[in-house]
Structures
1.
Amino acid sequence: MAIALILALAQDPDWRSDNFAGPVPESILKSKSGRIELEAILGSRRLRHAAPVQCVAYSPDGKRIVSAGLDRSVRIWERGTGREIASLVGHEGYVHAAICSPDGTRIYSGGQDDTIRVWDAATGAALASWSTNGSAVSLTISADGKKLAAIGGTFDRLQIRETSNGRVLAEARVSGYLHVLAFRPDGKSILSGGSDGKIRVWSSDDATELAAWEGHVESVYALAFRPDGKRVISAGSDGTIRTWDAETGKELANWSGGDSAIMAVDVSRDGKHVVSDGDGGEIVVRKADSGEAVSRWIAHPKVTSVRFSPDGSEIASTGRDGAVRLWDRATGKARPHSPGGVGGIRSVSVRPDGKALASASSDGTIRVWDVTTRKRGAEFKVDAGAVPSVAFALDGTKLVSASDDGMVRVWDPESGKQLLSWKAHEAGTCAVAVLPDGKRIVSGGADGAIRVWEVETRKELAVWKEHTRPVRSLAVAPDGRFVLSGDDVGVVKMWETQSGRVLQSWREHEKPVNTLAIRGDGKRAVSAGDDFFVVLWNLDKGKRSAKQGGLSDGPAMWAAFSATGEVLWGLERTEIRIWDYQEGEIADSIRCDGGPLSVQICGDLMVVGNADTTVSLYRLR
C-alpha cells in the first residue's frame, strides 16, 4: 500500500506541476528508514521558496525566471504558468545571488558556502564550482558574456573571472564591505557600492580603481545602468535614489525614497522607468527623468529585489516571505500564478476526529482543509497581523485563534463565521490552547501574562504573571490538570490549572521556546527552541531528562510526540527528525522541502505547516 501510494504521487501530473519540477524526489517522499512517508501537499508551491528569497532575474528571452534564496536553492520558473522547471541544489549554505548569461544558456549563482556555481539553464545540471574564499554575495556579467565579477572574501574583495573556466583575471580589496556590483553595458568598467557610501569605478581588465563617487551618506545597496550606459541609478540605506553621469561621476538627481533603506533598483529596457523597494514592503515605479512616482503598491513584508521583464510589461519581486511575485507594471496588480499568501504557516491544528485540519499564517489567513479529499473548505482572514496560534475545541465545532492585535477569536470552522472575539492581551496574543472541557481556553501574550477564559461569556477566570517576557508557546495536559508555557528567553514553566500555582520552572533554552508538547500519559514533555535544542522533560520528577541538537542545523521550530511516544522535531528549512531519546540518537529523518514551521500529530497522521505556505501530510509507520 505504501509503495503504491508513493508511485501514485510521483505519477500525478497535478502533484508535479504544482509542487515539483519532475518526479517527486525520493528524499522528500520517504524517510531514510521508512518511518515517515509524505502523503500529500495542500496548497501550491508555485513561485515559492521555503525561506526568504534574495534575488530574481529574467532569462534573456523573458520566458523564464530565476530566483535564489536562503533555502540553499536556485529555482527556475516558467514565467507564464509559475510552474517550477527545476530546483538547482548544490550550495551548502544560503544562496545570495543568481544571474543568467547573456545568451541564456547558463546560470551563475553565488553563496554563503564560498562558491560560485555554474548551471546548465536548460537541464539544471551542475557544470562547475569555483571557490571565492568567502561568501559570494553579488554577481554581475559583461554584455558579451566573457567576464563575471563577484564580491568574495569577507565582503571586501572584487574578483573578475573568465566565464569559460572560472579563472581569476584580476582582484582588488577595499576597506569596509562591498554590497553590490554592476557591469557597464560596454564592458569597460565595473561599479561597486559599499558600506562607506561610495560608488567605486573599477577597470574590468585589471581591477584598478578608476574613480570614487561620493553622495550617499550610508551604505550603497543597489546599482543599475540605464540601457544607453550614460546614466547610473543607485540606492542605499540613507533612503535616497540617486542618478549619476556615468562618464564624470557627477550627481544629477537625488530622490527621497522614504524613511527606510532602499535595497533594490532596476531600470526598464526603454530607460523610461525606475523601480525600487519602498517603505513597509512597497514597490515604487518612477519616471527615470524626474523621479516622479507613477505607481506604488505593497508587495512583501520586506522586499529584497526587483526586476523589470525584458519587454517591460512586468515586474518581478522577491521578499522575506519566501515568494517570487509578478506584477503588471502599469497597474501594480498581481499577475496570475503569483503566490496568494504572505509568510509561512505559523500554526496547524487537526480536528480531534482526524478528518479536518486548520492552518494559520503570517498574513492572518486561516484555512480549513478536508483531510480525506485534500480539498480546501472555509477560508477567512484576520485583518490585524499574523495568526501565530490556532486550535480546535475537542468537539471539533469551534476553532480558536490568537493574533498580533491581542485578540482571541472563536470561529465556526465549517462556514468561517466569527462567533466570538475579545481583547485578551494589550501587546499581542502569541499562543492559545483549549482545555479538555471545551469551555475554557488559555492564552499567552506578548505582555508575559497567561490568562484563562470562559469561552461563552468571555470572562477572565484567572491571570498568571510569573513570566517577564512574551509567552510564545503553551501546552495543556491531556487531563487538563496542568499547563506548560515557554517564553522569549527560554524559560519553561509548569502551572497547576486550578490554582494557577507554578509547580516547576526551568531554564534549559537560551533563546525563545518555539513549541511545547505533552505526551499522552502526561508524564513527559518536550520543548523546541531557537537555540537549536530540543529538550525532553520528566514531569513527574520535575527535571530535564534528555537534550538533543545544538549544532549548526538551525532553530528547532517544533517538537511533538508520536502515538508510540517517540519525539519528532523539525528544523527550520531543512528536515524532520525522529529522536529515540532512550537510545540517545536520531532514529530517522526526512527532508522537508517546504521549510517545517509548525506541527500537530493525530494518530499516525502528522500535519506540518511550512514556510512556503503549504501544509504537508505525513504518515508515521
Note: The chain is about 5% helix and 50% strand.
2.
Amino acid sequence: MATPRLFRLLGLGLLLCCLLLLGWRLTTVSVPRWRAQALVVADLARTAGTDPQQWADVQAAARDLPWFPPFRQLRQGASAMSQLTAAAQSLQGLTTLPLAADGQTIPRSTLDAGLTHLHTITHQLQSLSQLADSVPTWALDRATDRDPAQLSALRGDFRQTATALTHLREVLHTFLRQPHRVLILLQNHNEVRPSGGFSGSVLILDFDQDGLSYQFRDIYSLDRLVPDSARLPVPDYFTPLDQTLSLRDANFSPHFPTVADTYRHFFRAIDQPEPDTVLAVNLSLLTQLIRLTGPVSLPPYDIQLTELNADLILSFLVESKAAGRYSAKDPVLALITQLITQLKEIDDLPAAWAATGFDPAEYIAQKNFLAHSQNTKLQQRWAHWGLSGELRHRPTADNALYVDLVSIGANKSDRFMWTRLHHDSEIKRDGRVRNLLQITRTHALRDRELDQLLGVADWPPTLQALADTQGDWVLGLGQNRVVMRVHVPAGAQLISGSSPSGPITSSLTPDALWTVWEVPLFMKPGENIDLTLEYETPLQRGSSDWRPYHLQVIGTPIGRQLTYLPTISADAQSATVQAQSQNLGLPQPMVDNDYRIIVEYKPNSAP
C-alpha cells in the first residue's frame, strides 16, 4: 500500500524540481535574453517613424519574444504598426491622382481598395488603443516613463483617429451606395459671404457604380449658363454688386441648408444633375496646408507663396487674369496640384501635421467648413460634427444674436479688417431687455504693407507690370464695402443707431423668426467706424423679484478677425446678476454660445 504513495511523492518531488529548474532557467537565462530583445525592439520602434519597411523590421525582431505579458504587447504593437504603416503607404499611393479642369475618373476598384486600406488602418488603430495602457514601462524612454499620462493621451489619440476614420468610411460608403453628386465650394474668405466667402471655384464629384469622376470648374463658367428667368431677387443694398442673385452668389443666406438648396436650384436651371451634398471650405485652410508643406512655388509665374501671403497672391493672380482672360482660375488649379505634390513628399505626414498646431475643432467652430446633404443620415452626421451651419433660434432662448458680413464690391478683401462687438443686455425689472450692440470696425492696412506681404520687389517684371496697371485696390487698398447683417428675434424694437456709410434698413426673414438690420460699413485704409445700436427685446419669464435670462449667440464664419464681448447687467442697484454657465465679460470667438443668468432683486426695493 505504501508503494503507490511513495511513487506519488517521488512524482511530486520530480515535478517540483522541474519547476524549480524551469524557474531558474527563466530567471537567469530566458528572461534577461527576452528583456534584452524587447529593448532592441523598443529602440527600433523609436526610430521607425512611419516607414513600413522599418516597421516590418521591428515586427521581425519581435517574433522571438514569448506570447505572454508583457512581451505580448510588444509583439502585437509591432504587428499593428507594421500593418498600419503599410496600409497608409498603399492608401497614399492611391491618392496620386491628376487634377484637371476637364475632369478625371477614379475606377471603382481603386475606391474599393482605398476603403479596404482605411478599414485596416482603423482596425490597427483600435488595437493600438487597447495596447497603449499596458506597454511595459521599462521599454519606454525615460521622459515617457516619468510621465505615464503620455500613454493615456496616446491611447486617446489612437481612439479618436480610429473613430474619425470609421465615420469617413461610412460617408464614403454612402456616396458609393448609389449615384451621388458632391459639390465642393472653394470659398475665398477674404471676400466675405454669409457661408464664409465668395465661391470663385468649385469641385464637382460624381460617384456611381463605375467609380468617381471629378472636375474643377470656374464658377463663372457655370454662371454664364444660368438663364435670366432662373435668377433670384436680391435686397437693394446688394444691387451695387449685382442686380440679381445668380450661381456665383448663391451662398447669400446665413442658413447653410438654404444655401445648398439655392445651388441645387441653379444646377437644375442649367440642366445639370443637382448636388446631393454641398460642402463649403474656406481658403483659410490654405494657410494651414502651406504651414505644413512650406512655401509653394508656382513655376508658370515664377512666384512663391507663403502662409502669410498665399491668399493675397492667389487673389491677385486671379483678379489680374495673369493666366489670361479665359483661364483666370488656372493659378488655383496650379496651386492645388503643387500642394498635392509637396504633401506627398513629406515623410511623416501625421507628425508634421501635429507639429503645425492645427486644431480641427477650432477650425470647425469658426465655421470654415460647412456641409448639407439630402441624405438624412449624412445630414445627421454633419449636424453631429457641427457642420450644418443652421441659423436656428432655440425656443428656450429669451434673446439671440447673429452677425454676418456681405461684401458688395470695391475692395474685395477683408484681410485687413478687424471687427469688435460688445453686446450688453440690461435686464429690467418689468421684463424688458435693453440691448446695446457696439460695433467697432477698423481698416488696419498700413502704408506699403501690402507690397511687403506680396513681395512685389521679387516678382518677375511681367507680374510687376500687372501689379502697376491693375492696382492693389482689390486686395486691400481700395474702399472696403460691406453690409453687416444683425439678426435679432422678430419683434425687437430699434431705439437708436446710425451708420456714417448710409441708412440702416430693416427686413424680416421668410420664416418670420428674425428681424434683420442691414448696417452699411464703407471704409478706406486707416479709417475706423464705431457705432452703437440700441434696441429692446421682451423677457417673458420670471417675476418682479427674479428673472432668468438666456442669450443665444450664433456663430459666424468671420473667424479670428472678429471678437465678441458679452456683458449682462441690471437696471437697479438692488439687483444682482448670477452667471450659471459661460464666463461673462471676456472676449469670445464668434462661435455658438449660450449665456444663461439669473437677475435677482431684493424684496421691496424700488423698481
Note: The chain is about 40% helix and 25% strand.
